[in-house]
Amino acid sequence: MSWPWDEVVEFTKAAQGMGCDPSGWAVQVSSALAAHGVAIPSPELAQLLASHLCWENDVPLAWKYVEKALAANIAPPMLLVALLSVRVIPNRHYKPVAYRLYLELFRRHAFSFTSQIKGSHFKKTMASIDDILHLSEKFGVQACEPGALVVEYVFAILWQLLDATLDDEGLQEITPVKNPEWVTKTQDMEIEGEVALSEKKTEYNEKLQTLNTIMAIEVVWHFLHQKVISKLLSLARENMYDVFFLTVQHIYERTPRELCFAYNYMPFGASFRPSHWDAFTHHLNLLATSSSALRNSTVSPEKLQFFIIDTSRFGREGKSRHCHAVSTVVSSGSLTSSGGHGPGYSNCSLWIPIDLYLEDCLDGSVAATDAIEVLSGLIKALHAFNGSTWHDAFLAIWMASLRFVQRERDPLEGPVPHLDTRLCMLLSITTLSIANIIEEEEATAIDVVEPSNQWKEKTSVGRCRKDLVSSIKILGDYENLLVPPPSVTSAANKAAAKAMLFVSGLAGGSGHPESAMNDKTVNCIGNMRHLIVEACISRNLLDTSAYYWPGYISGHINQIPRALPNQVPNWSALMKGAPLTSSVVNALVATPASSLAELEKIFEIAINGSDNDKVSAATILCGASLVRGWNIQEHTVRFVAKLLSPSVPADYAEAESHLISHGPILNIVLTGISSVDCVQVFSFHGLVGLISEFRLTILQMLSMNFIYGHTCIQVPELAGALMAICEVFGSCFPSISWTSTTGEEISVHTVFSNAFILLLRLWKFNHPPLEYCIMGDEAPVGSQLTPEFLLLLRNSRVLSNGKITKNRSSSEPLSAATSSSSMQPIFMDSFPKLKTWYRQHQACLASTLSGLVHGTPVHQNVDVLLNMMFGKFTGGSNQTIVSGTSGNSNLSSSSGPADDISSRPKLAAWDIMEAVPFVVDAALTACSHGRLYPRELATGLKDLADFLPASLATIVSYFSAEVTRGVWKPAYMNGTDWPSPAANLSSVEENIKKIVATTGVDVPSLVAGGSSLATLPLPLAAFVSLTITYKLDKASERFLNLAGPALENLAASCPWPSMPIVAALWTQKVKRWTDFLVFSASRTVFHHNKDAVVQLLKSCFSAMLGLSPQIPNHGGVGGLLGHGFGSHFSGGLSPVAPGILYLRVYRCIKNIFLLTEMTLSLLMASVKDIMGTVVSKETSEKLKKTKYGMKYGQVSLAAAMARVKAIATLGATFVWLSGGSGIVQCLLQEMLPSWFISAHELDEEGGNGGIVCMLIGHALAYFSVLCGMFAWGIDSVSVSKRRARVITSHMEFLASALEGKISLGCDWVLWRAYVSGFVSLVVDCAPSWVLEVELHVLTSVSQGLKQLNEGELALALLKKGGVMAMGAAAELILASE
Q1: pLDDT the model gives residue 948
Q2: Averaged pLDDT score across all residues of the chain
Q3: Might you name a Gene Ontology BP term for this protein (predicted)?
Q4: How far is CA 741 from CA 582, 659, 664, in A?
């Protein structure tokens, strides 16, 4: 110390010697400091007083001087308390009086912050406190802001005092950390001149030490319950990590926000040192359970234990605020309860996004993310948004999935997904989605392990699993939903019989109960719940205790058979090595495998068996086990996909590809999975899906075990396999062929065509831009994926596998049989023929054909194909069609008809595919010029498609592209040149009107005046004539599955009434498809009529609210989606529910932005409709009178709010499904800001203006947050980097408007309701979003919220901002002190 501090020291010593009054001492010291220009409070004075006191002047008067310095604010309390804590606490046993006085100072002055953090020397004080307590070193957080230091200081000081108390009672030894964070052990002291203490003195000190321990407990308890301190501690709970975790920032070059983001919302389990908060609460728990001093204090152990249990409230105030009673929320202008439902309103309405998503999955498109992942994210989002329990969430998805199945108890006939697809969604996809959630919850219930392994604290595990059990139990109350469709009754009965046999002790866990029963033995009636339980048991979500649930078994056993075999004889024989005879094969094709072991056995035969056995095994895998093996379907899909990419033998040295020798088995698989339902099964199980780079990095840097479960990283392995097959077999000449076991000849053309058509059906990258009406991540894959991109996704899987393999959990090993055959990346250059075709194909779609040069091989192939197709028609006149440039054709001599199969061209498939566009162009041109009759055109095209079925894909694309050019003359469907639809056209029109009756849309007349001939654009007429030539047999099914949807899309893109004409033509050919065809035609009513689309959307909202005059129901799911459709219903063909119509229509609405704007407008109009029904004008008048407000008004407003939330949920789902994340980005960045800035007249009549505006504001908040949750999820790592950018942008808009930088045109009540609602929902339901927003934006929004008197919400927002926002949050807390 130097001058003036020497003067202060001397004066203090003198004053102490003279017994000077502390007040006088304080005045003199303050004057001396002021005289020397020293600012107060002075950090140097704090250090001087601590040094003076400890320990040369440890007398009561010196302590009084210290207390007066703090009271007079001439020394900073935080710094002085920190200095004393590191001196007094370690010596508290030797200096019990000093410790007692320290505790008194601590109680009075330790946590007086506001004046200090505003002081001019606070940065210097902050650095001193950090050096004294080593805060940055211990917590791993560099406190650069005053608020952050206050949080660390409060946490450290209380923890230090707590540890000292534990040490006093000998409890420190049983804490997990043997090297405690704080120096609390009593240290030896050498005190000169001091003699041994007398017994009386010793007894006094021991008594004082005991009293000190009690007082310390009371001091800690006092501050834990202080409002400001508890809020500061909540920040410690959110942000005090283990220092080890933060060191990865330097290793992996991640920003601090990314790291705290990953820590707070870690999706997988890990073992590392406990967080500081965990250790702190563990010490509190130890005090509560083991402290004898606690029982002698004023604090009861029960209160402390309750406090520890309730520490989850720290940082959770927003959730409780969001979920309080509806009436309170409405009266205060805040958001309603997430789970609050008005009287009489169905809870199902709040879960309707699940119903809509399930129905939307039936459109036949392959989503860019697998259904398991999407459904898991949807459930998690709605669980958070509705503030529900997992029991309610799981019950909601089970009921939605059951409704999904029940809507098609009697399915329509046609080339569309049927009941098997719906059952796959219920029993496989839904179950796996729930398994995802449970695995994630149990993985994040982290074991907090100290490296010494001497302590382990495990958080509660299994909450989700228990709620799953309770949800399935209660399903038994919904008998109508559980009635199995007729085709599933047998499977349900067998599942029930299996449970009965198990409970009776007659079965040993057989997967096939039919092996232990017959009609005379077991009489048991099963339902859909029995199938659900079996699906859950097979995936370890339930155990066989479910069989003992009350009421689960309904039936009886008539007699006990003498012998109960353990498996079905055929499966049992297979497992024992019996040969695959025809009878065994037929039985196994018809019976799903019951276990993974059986699948592996069959797969092993398909890989290593004889040639005949390989074919038989492949046939079995593509049979019932694939389509109806719901309990093992995810494994069957992988096995089947693996069969399409056989490994290269180690000693293979042939010039040709090894795939050639696998031709028969490849063809079996390709045809076996070609049905509509099989394609959907593959799509649902995740053909395309990625793990984010950052999530992978976090897994690696923590050396965690990657949980390889039901939703493993899926990428288009199937795409790479199909491309390889197409490349190899398309390059071979048709001289290579095989004979199947049925005697059918299989050529390389057959294998190529099956692979190529499946490839296009799966990803649709061959479709023209006309279909690309959808934007964003959830668009049909054809609109955004190319073969190059598919391979890029595949290669990312290969790289990810290489990085994860070492960390993969051994608890769920992937079968070696399903591991990737090649860990090498594949690029488009590996498929030169496919690459050439695709480029030619793109050029053909972009413009008319050109580039055909006479004399080239392509030109020669075109002539050969034209001769094959049309030579027989012109053979008598020695004329045939030959190719020229696009749009021209001429006639030349022909060598004669080429209808003999043996004389067909010997061309490789890729050579034919290259020539097909020119062939079809020449044929269509000749027909338009009258040189070729329409019947001859159709027959010739059919010959081409029969010769190489894959050519049908190019024919589809050519006609689709040509119809958009508008250069072809119309074709008159007169029954002479072209087929006539006249016989069925009027009935089609009548049925279309019935179908759209619920929407109130007028259907234009199909033929004006009833006399004009029906016409179609020539390309469409040619294509429909081609499709009519096909027979509806199994051989043609896979080709019609490609042509059928293409025909519908093509007709829908043509002027009205093209699709009804096509439907009328096809109903003449296949009468049993009438319902399907008429429904397809009815969809085109909305394709070119904006007003019809608006009316359809309006009818959806009205049906949801139960306000539709056309639908007599109570609204909700039933009103929106109905209960099925078809002429089998009573009264003939029934109207289609508006929600189903919308889901089948929106993909052809080209202006998705207009669709979103209409949805937004209808949402607000629906709010006013709700106010006009639920809250009538009479009610509004009552609300203005106080005596009615609490009694009637709150209930009505609660009911209104529940409906507002329901329609906001509906609108958000429509926007997400229709436009994906792209339109959600536009909504949050452009549409909503523009709407708020623009002027609006929402309530011209002025009746319920304030209430309407408030409800609209809340509706928009619900709507916008749900759109984001559906598009990007609420997980810590988004599937898209777009989320952070969009949420930050929208928050910036809110901040600018709150700060007055942007002038708003909307009502202020509406704006306030929106802002508070949006922020509250984000904080409560999607806290991971907050971590992605820049700190300065969060700070601006919180300041704006304070101006709206939303201080608690402002604090909740900053709390979720991570460690970087901790300082700002603390300052906000201290400002309220």
Answers
A1: 93
A2: 79
A3: regulation of phenylpropanoid metabolic process
A4: 10, 19, 10
Query: What CA–CA distance (Å, rounded) separates 625 from 636?
Result: 7
Separation of CA 1037 from chain center: 34
In the numeric block, which tokens belong to residue 356? Answer: 């809509």
Kindly state the tokens that stand for 742.
Answer: 């049925």
Helix, strand, coil distribution of the chain in percent, nearest 5: 65, 0, 35
Q: Which two tokens stand for residue 470?
A: 């309770």
What pLDDT is attached to residue 255? 45
Other CB atoms within a 10 A radius of the CB of residue 819 amount to 12
Taking the model in full, what pTM does it have? 0.86
Take residue 1149 and report the two structure tokens written for it: 């609405």
Mean pLDDT of 1319-1334: 94
1042, 960 Cβ separation under 8 angstroms: no
Task: Provide the 3-class DSSP secondary structure of residue 971.
Answer: strand
Cis peptide bond N-terminal to 4, omega within 30: yes
The one-letter code for the residue type at 343 is P
Mean pLDDT of 122-148: 80
Please name the residue that has the structure tokens 């495990």.
Answer: 458
Q: Which residues of 22-55 are buried (b: 16+ CB within 10 A; e: fewer)?
A: beebbeebbeebeeeebebbbbbbbbbbbebbbe
Report d(CA 512, CA 349) in Å as an integer. 39
- Please work out, in degrees rounded to the nearest 5, the angle formed at the alpha carbon of residue 174 by the alpha carbons of 172 and 179: 60
Q: What are phi and psi of 553, to 5 degrees?
A: -100, 130
- Over 80: is that where the pLDDT of 599 sits? yes
Q: Which of 606, 674, 988, 1001 is nearest to 818 (CA)?
A: 606
CA–CA gap between residue 283 and residue 774 (Å, rounded)? 56
Rounded to whole angstroms, the Cα distance separating 834 from 855 reads 24
Three-state DSSP state, 339: coil
DSSP letter string, 1303-1352: ---S-HHHHHHHHHHHHHHHHHH-HHHHTTS-HHHHHHHHHHHHHTT-HH
Q: Tokens standing for 1162? A: 């209808």
Long-range contact pairs involving 488-491 (C-beta distance under 8 Å, separation at least 24): 488/419, 488/423, 488/528, 488/531, 489/526, 491/526, 491/531, 491/628
Query: By CB neighbour count within 10 A (0-12 exposed, 13-18 middle, 19+ buried), where does 648 fall?
Result: exposed
Mean pLDDT, residues 600-617 taken together: 92
Contact yes or no for 670/761 (Cβ under 8 A): no
Residues 373, 379, 382, 383, CA torsion sign: negative
549 confidence band (pLDDT: 50, 70, 90): very high
Neighbours of 585 (CB within 10 A): 22
634 in Cβ contact with 626 (< 8 Å): no
CA 171 from centre of chain: 46
Distance CA 231, CA 252 (A): 33
Q: DSSP 3-state assignment of 458?
A: strand
Residue with tokens 């009505």, as numbered in its chain: 1196
Distances (CA, A) of 120 to 4, 38, 43: 20, 11, 11
Dump the DSSP string for 53-108.
Answer: HTTTT-SHHHHHHHHHHHHTTSS-HHHHHHHHHHHHGGGTTT-HHHHHHHHHHHHH
Classified as helix, coil or strand, 451 is: coil
Does residue 1221 contact residue 778 with C-beta atoms inside 8 Å?
yes
Task: Name residues whose C-beta falls within 8 Å of residue 465's C-beta, 6 or more positions apart in sequence.
Answer: 438, 442, 541
Residue 488 makes CB contacts below 8 A (sequence gap 6+) with 419, 423, 528, 531
Q: Which of 396, 395, 414, 289 is nearest to 352 (CA)?
A: 396
CA 6 to chain centre: 68
Task: Give the H or E element holding residue 267.
Answer: none
* Nearest Cα residue to 369 out of 1322, 1314, 1279: 1279
